[in-house]
Amino acid sequence: MEETTTPLLTNDAVVLGLLVMILGFVFFTSHSEKSGWQKFYTYVPALLLCYFIPSVFNSLGVIDGEQSNLYFVASRYLLPTSLVLLTLSIDLKEIWKLRHKAGLMFITGTVGIIIGGPLAILIVSTFAPDVVGGQGPEAVWRGLSTIAGSWIGGGANQAAMFEVFQPSGELFSATIAVDVIVANIWMAFLLYGAGISSRVDRYFKADASAVDRLKEKIENYHLSIAKIPTLTDIMIILAFGFGATAIGHFGADLIAPFIENHAPGLAKFSLTSGFFWLIVIATTLGIILSFTKARKLEGAGASKLGSAMLYILVATIGMKMNVLAIFDNPGLFMVGLIWMLVHVTLLLVVGRLIKAPFFFVAVGSQANVGGAASAPVVASAFHPSLAPVGVLLAVLGYALGTYGAYICGLLMQAAAQ
């Protein structure tokens, strides 16, 4: 059994204060006029630091992302609220124009996960067969199948694979560590890439005009309605955001148990997951509000408040990563890294062939690997208004997750023979 150590800071109020101070430090220095900071942030994106610094504190034992409830609070309360506020001002017609390349890169990412697992097992078996061996519940491929569920869909799909392939509890714990660390390392690369996306697009010879046109259109709309927000404006914005989140939770608490009781077979589509319905309802309400006068709340800073909530979520995601865990089971992490490398390579090859902007590569990947909790984070790293694209693709991932992961599991079983 793995020993649990007590972190230096155990009070979530103190940990939250630390995380917000880290965010404040990053924002203050990233907008500093001092040449040293300006030079530093030309190479290191601010969003990456908001994610990375909490992971350092977690790795050093100052805080513990597993023992803290902050990620749960941020993902269940702040994430849906931020999605509503970021979706208020979207131009659905313009986002719809992005569907072809965004959808193709998402499917490419899914295929990369499905074939990456068995390929990683075959590669590692040539020089370290013990790492991918095992019999019965200890068969490593069974544990890896749960990673496939997580990387194509999300937590609900991962749980479904656990039920289908029945890995041992100890093996499942080890594969969860691989899932979290490898996925978070890749997310760090994506956040870095978002900061230099124009350079990546030039290398890909990509036509980013559709994404740029959407960003420009939304920025012009923001400027046309911008005003100095009053306290009343802020309270109304929060009322819409948290009100929609409340409706999302209320609906999820009714819909998910109803489906679980009356149509349990729909679990393979994640339709019995409360979190799935929370995200779907919140995003839908945000889209509906974008067709009403509530859209003008953007002028008072709705997306800025939404972005602030999203950054707190970023920090709580970061505090769940412990890079030192790689040394606990290096063989399994090697499998995970090779698997992710296959996924990334396929995305980059297809992206280069179709000259897709890096935005589509990054969001197509994260909608698979990260799901609804982090896909909008990566999308908003390009522009806050693009967050809904990440959410819509992540919801598609939930629907495909169990099927894709099941196929991947069978292929890994065959590869491990």
Structural notes for this entry:
The structure is a single chain. The protein has 417 residues and is mainly alpha-helical. The protein contains 18 helices and no strands.
Summed up, what is this model?
With 417 residues, this protein is mainly α. Helix content is 74%, strand content 0%.
Determine the N-to-C terminus distance: 28 Å
β-strand percent reads under 5%
As a percent range, the share of helical residues equals over 70%
The helix-and-strand class reads mainly alpha
User: Compute the gyration radius: what is it?
Assistant: 21 Å
H/E series: HHHHHHHHHHHHHHHHHH
Q: What is the general shape?
A: globular
- How many helices does DSSP assign? 18
Sheet of most strands: none
Average pLDDT confidence is: 88
Could you tell me the number of beta strands? 0
Uncertain spans, ≥5 residues at pLDDT below 50?
none
- Total of domains: 1
Spell out the key features of this protein.
417 residues, mainly alpha, globular
Question: What's the structural blueprint in terms of helices and strands?
Answer:
Blueprint (H helix, E strand, L loop, with lengths): L11 H19 L4 H9 L2 H14 L10 H18 L4 H5 L2 H27 L14 H13 L2 H11 L3 H27 L1 H8 L4 H17 L5 H32 L11 H16 L12 H17 L11 H24 L4 H12 L5 H8 L4 H30 L1
Helix pairs in contact: 1-3, 3-9, 3-14, 4-12, 4-13, 4-14, 6-7, 6-15, 6-16, 6-18, 7-8, 7-9, 7-18, 8-18, 9-15, 9-16, 12-13, 13-18, 15-16, 16-17, 16-18, 17-18
